[in-house]
């Protein structure tokens, strides 16, 4: 079932007294429609990787995750790489994805297309759950153009480029989606007034305006 | 061009207004309300209030790329995209740079839109009066020529304009920033109030106030408009008429009189001079779509085609009497082009205040009025004149999660909450009038209508660059004094034009030998031609100039109407 329709039906039948988190918990089982779209830019292996990574970066909880929205974050990434990204970045992205897939196969001894959530979580954590010192080194290097990166570091540099781009589009696609913009964040298309100073307690759920 | 067939339009109008932007709209309204049958021309397409605002209601998810620029679109508007105002929500208001090319002897960013309403649709709406500090500046320090008007001449017209357009803000009783007819000010947020307090404590020469902006607040009635709804989607055109534009305000007012004939797609290229009568007889246009040439006759002509547009039309209007362009006895036509310097300032992170937030999207920020070179005490060694700051504070959003290595449920929950506070400000600096900052016409590079293109030869000089540096340094000093962290100053190069406050190409003055226009904006030697857009500015001051263009236009239009009625009786 389309989660959006399901949610609307649920809130209608249960009334407004039920908090959104409960509804999302009830819906957490309908996540299967993420595979039905045809990529414009991504290969099927890359699509498989990115669906998993997006789900790891912004997983479903009391609120929907990156692959629960329409269009979902991986599909948004695919669209943006197809329509907007420069050719140079497209090439870097593909190289990074290939390196990540190779790492995956080396580590788990299976093709990336057959990888499961747990395996992706393990490999992703090895890149993103690192010490503060290591993080600084990585982020500093990411600011360099590729020509200035040491040869011995190129693979690592490209892999992080790829992973950070996946994260960027996961966030972008998620937080600018209709579902998150209208139902998760505080939606206020016609505020009518500006209050410059209000206590956070008065903000519904303590969430940001979309 | 003279040999080509030109249709002579049978009706003789009382007045013709060239342009429908912030100045043209006012000329149209005032002339029509004075009973003059007025032809109002615009070179671009028709834009009707509300009806033609295609993006006014769009949320990010309504756009395929969620507001990200498409490189294919950017490729058509490489110059226009240098302005922060351009986005997929607003790009349809800006020209295609290949259809409307210009030439740069020195770099110049000419940001503009060709449609009814002009830049009054996309303007930033900040509205500040000039004062006698500005009107006397040229005379006092000897740059440029003396303004032929003083504050007392323009003050009643500021009153009239502010009352009609609706300007929200706070009166402060400052000599360098006169009080106005202001409606209920918008609120500063907690962090801006903190900066206000710290500036008051640490700097006796300066203060921070809420911006004065052409948005409707308070109880005054404005026909067809409602109060600002704080959507901050102004640049797309406002369905509520919450801010002033020609489309929402002056053109409907002119329309209501029954005296306006609005003709869009009409590129004015020449004001015709009648050698016998010694006055202008009308305006020649090319229909932008059919390329038909038409000659419209009128008793009075108002050129409100924008600074560069008006100067260009006058320069193309050659006759035996005026071989170098209409009214160019002084040789100053096309010279003394100014724009404000911009892009210098500072920003900082603000620790604390995390228990406070705001509601609504305020289309406005704070303002720090000029505090340099007001008197002996504030006199600067390094530069003449001064600058004012505009800025704002806000809380960061989900974008702060990009470019770092966090992920998972915690990240998601974190990014749903408002992030830490940040604050920033930038200054608009006054540019001196230099004869050598000029435009010329290029007859070797014609546009699609066979008209000459514009060459820009304008540059900021020592005074502007020194002031720009001070703008950065003082912004840093104020943010540091406020106790904010991670204070960073910035002072990149700013290309003339990018502040979109270009002005001065047909300046006002006392003397026909050194200026193009007199104190009522009439061409000295051709009194039935008025130029009332930014071209008329004798100095640039540092205030956002649109309010002044409107007041000057209203004053000139009422002068023209009075003269017209006098002549009719005689």
Automatic annotation (TrEMBL), chain A:
Q: What is the lineage of its organism?
A: Bacteria, Pseudomonadati, Bacteroidota, Flavobacteriia, Flavobacteriales
- Output this protein's name: Lactose 3-dehydrogenase subunit gamma LacC
Q: Which organism is it from?
A: Algibacter aquimarinus
Which top-rank group of organisms is this from? Answer: Bacteria
TrEMBL record, chain B:
UniProt entry keywords in alphabetical sequence: FAD, Flavoprotein, Oxidoreductase
Report the cofactors: FAD
Domain (Glucose-methanol-choline oxidoreductase C-terminal): give its ranges.
433-552
Glucose-methanol-choline oxidoreductase N-terminal domain sequence ranges: 106-341
Task: State the Pfam families in the record.
Answer: GMC_oxred_C, GMC_oxred_N
The UniProt similarity line reads: Belongs to the GMC oxidoreductase family.
Q: What is this protein called?
A: GMC family oxidoreductase
**Species:** Algibacter aquimarinus
Q: What is the lineage of its organism?
A: Bacteria, Pseudomonadati, Bacteroidota, Flavobacteriia, Flavobacteriales
